[in-house]
Design goal:
The structure is a single chain. The termini are far apart. The chain contains 5 helices and 2 strands; from the N terminus they run ααβαβαα. Helix 1 packs antiparallel against helix 2, helix 1 runs parallel beside helix 4 and helix 2 runs antiparallel to helix 4. It has a two-stranded antiparallel ribbon with strand order 1-2. With 147 residues, the protein is mainly alpha-helical.
Length: 147
């Protein structure tokens, strides 16, 4: 159980760091780009998506490792605890979608709960940043005439 708790703490720290670095990099570099302002919002969305995809993949690999190398549990349901299923389970857990077709058994349940909470916070952070970027870069026609 200690290895699962340690993995949870490390994943929270690592995913928060990844998210911070990607959003910070976007915040620093976007104003200097010579793209139209609205196009910068697409970069924000792709950057946030990339951050989430990387974080989901990390959780999936950690889940796979905990199952196959430490025996900290398994996934029950259709299929086995394959890497593909661990990545799929990670995506549905991170996003709080939770189809329920794969169910964690054993101590790895703690990782699943941690991932759901962490995903909720990081998705909220991305939404907040996207809103701020929209206020910053989205120039409306009425604003053009006032300047």
């Amino acid at each position: 159980m200690f290895i699962v708790i340690f993995s949870c703490v490390m994943m929270i720290a690592l995913t928060t760091l990844i998210h911070f670095e990607i959003l910070s990099s976007l915040n620093t570099r976007l104003p200097a780009l010579s793209f139209p302002s609205r196009s910068k919002l697409l970069i924000v969305m792709f950057g946030a998506f990339t951050a989430h995809a990387l974080e989901i993949a990390l959780y999936g690999f950690v889940l796979y490792g905990l199952i196959h190398f430490t025996g900290a549990g398994s996934l029950s349901g259709i299929g086995s605890s394959s890497l593909e299923n661990c990545l799929y389970f990670s995506a549905e857990t991170f996003s709080s979608l939770g189809f329920g077709d794969l169910i964690p058994i054993g101590p790895i349940r703690l990782l699943a709960g941690t991932e759901a909470l962490n995903g909720l916070l990081l998705i909220g952070w991305s939404a907040s940043y996207a809103y701020l970027a929209m206020e910053r870069f989205w120039v409306f026609p009425s604003q053009d005439s006032e300047s």
